[in-house]
Amino acid sequence: MDSKTVTDLFQNGQVLKICAPMVRYSKLAFRTLVRKYDCNLCFTPMIVAADFIRSVKARDSEFTTDQADRPLIVQFAAKDSQTLADAACIVSPFSDGVDLNCGCPQRSIICYTRLQRSGLVVFRLILRVILIEQKKCKRKLNI
Length: 143
Known about the structure:
- Strand 1 (18-19), helix 2 and strand 2 form a beta-alpha-beta unit.
- The termini are far apart.
- It is built from 6 helices and 5 strands, in the order αβαββααβαβα.
- 21% of the residues are buried.
- By secondary structure, the chain is of the alpha/beta class.
- Strands 1, 2, 3, 4 and 5 form a 5-stranded parallel sheet that branches.
């Protein structure tokens, strides 16, 4: 597959094949399979951001990828903006974007974020993540 950015995929107006995040199924082996059937964009299963940043074992277990696994969006569940920003920073070299899970519809999965009831809360969380990431970039570039 061509190495395109996620925004490039949406520029030509063609129908896209997107593999949405599925609990326990959207791991690397499944993403590799759907890409053989011309899937344009894949998501990882939901990853709990707090566990992901706290534990190398959780990172190794929950997030695997390879060079052919692009473009890739990593889905996180997070309770606060700093945790989401830190998790996003860890996966940024290996992915093309981050998705915030705002409520899992499966009854067997406890809704970690509980954000689906308030669009304003989600908007504020996303703004805080953007501001945190901008500050990190400025520090790295000494601006």
